[in-house]
Amino acid sequence: MSRDRRSVRRLSVLLVGISLLFAGCHDSWAHKKRKGSASGDSASPVMERALKLYEGEDYYSASIELFKVVEGESGDNEANKERAEFVMGKALYKLKFYSASLSYFDKVVQKGASHPHYNETLKWLASLSREVSDSAGVLDKIGKYNKAELDQPALSSVRDELYFLLGKYNYNKGKFKEAVALFSSVNPKSEFYVQAKLFEGATYVREYQAKPAREAFVEVLRVGAESSDPKVKPYEDLANLSLARVFYSVGQFDQAVKYYDRVSMDSYDWPNSLFESSWANFMLKQAGYSKALGNIHTLQAPFFENFIKPESVAEALTVKATIYFYNCLYDKAYDVIRDFNERVPPLAQELKHIVDQHTANDAFYDYAVKIRDGSSGLPNDVERAAKAVLSDRSLARRFDYVKELDRELAQHEKADPAWKSTAVANAVLTDITLQRSLTVNETGELARQRVSRLVGELAQLIKRVIKIEYEILQGQKGQLEQEVIQEQQISSNARATEIGNVRVDDEHQYWPFNGEYWRDELGYYRYRLLNRCEKLAPEGAPTGPTGP
């Protein structure tokens, strides 16, 4: 019995010794693990080092360590990896690698509200939207959030900006009700208020609601009148142009002309507003013919070569010919048609050749860049027309984004060789290169579509001119269709009636045009027009109020 107790005691000592041995081994292993990785919720030394480097504004070094955490090389848990993703996005933003920064923030956004830094990311997306164009995809990331998520107190400093950005996203997606709710939520004291009101008005226009659209645009004008900020002026011009279009769409052509006239000469849209105003004046018949012709004359000034849309120049000629036709001035109408035929069909053919010759998107992009900088080797008139259509705002923003990506590539190339040899540098380079390739492809495709659309529009105008030319020839032969004859009631004894008598007030001078354009005369040209018809409007003439 005593021997059995001694055996048990010996066994107990042995088991305790074995337990202590294993305990010692576990402690030794745990100690080694803490030296290189995380335990539980604590951050690994790699993560701690990354955070210290970030706080010390050594963003290049911080990115190296953060990449190790994100890729699972540090042994950190999922929470620390998610934090590293967020901090990596911030570090790359600080380094001005905006494309790669957006990619890391996208990792956060894709996980949604389950990501611990999902809400914080909104601030950084707002910051990115100021640095890159919409084509970079920032709006798509912001579009993952809803309005309620924007209302959290932590976002108070950027809330109005986010309302505006999320509103733009919904506008682009055709979610007009949600867009209006967001635009109307922007505080009137916010710097984004005027832009939000413009988009609110544009949204109502898309929904064919003229009254609230007008109210939104008028609000922009009210704010502009009370503001001394020069940045507001372009928005005033856009509001005036938008109001003019609203009034034109509902047939209030005199009101449309009033707002077209308020677009300033310094506005990017002034040349195209002159063209649109020509149509509104045309619809006013004899009360507007003189000014319509004056606007078209203005558009022929060399100042507008790179601003006016080529299809607008061509269409303006059709308006001019039609005005002469409706006033039985057949010779003048035919002169305009001859001018059109000498210029427009050859231009359309050259532009079609450009589209047919560059079928690959990247090849079209490269050629479009040459057109935009004036080195394409095309004839001057063709290059001007192509350049004008490629200067479309949305398209121009895409070209600008490619330039931004080129800047990031150049920055990467000039970075410290020690950083360039790291895995994170390779990842950043891959991201920028891929994003540039995608953007070039998208921009090239869109540029080709713009030029193709221009070719199609010119083709339609050519068909319209053929019809006008036929009517002119019939009029010259005295073989107009019966309804046109009834309208015109041409008589060889009828005296020509002057239309658009130019009245000069105390603030203006009458000065005959001598073939030379002066900038301070632009927009003030008027035509004295003789109507050789007994009645002022043949078949097909626009309806509208008549004037003295």
Got a strand count? 2
Count the helices. How many?
Answer: 24
Structural shape = elongated
Structural class: mainly alpha
Could you give a short account of the major beta sheet? 2 strands, antiparallel
**Strand coverage percent:** under 5%
Proportion of helical residues: 55-70%
> How many angstroms does the end-to-end distance come to?
136 Å
Strand order of the largest sheet: 1-2
Mean pLDDT over the residues: 84
- The radius of gyration computed from the alpha-carbon positions, rounded to a whole number of angstroms, is 34 Å
Q: pLDDT below 50 for ≥5 consecutive residues: which ranges?
A: 1-36, 486-494, 535-548
The arrangement of helices and strands along the chain is HHHHHHHHHHHHHHHHHHHHHHHHEE
Describe the overall structure.
- The chain has 548 residues and is mainly α.
- Among the domains are: 43-145, Serine Threonine Protein Phosphatase 5, Tetratricopeptide repeat (Alpha Horseshoe); 309-479, no CATH class.
- It has 24 helices and two strands.
- The chain has a two-stranded antiparallel ribbon.
- Helix 16 runs antiparallel to helix 17 and helix 18 (330-357) runs antiparallel to helix 23 (423-477).
- Residues 1-36, 486-494 and 535-548 have low confidence and may be disordered.
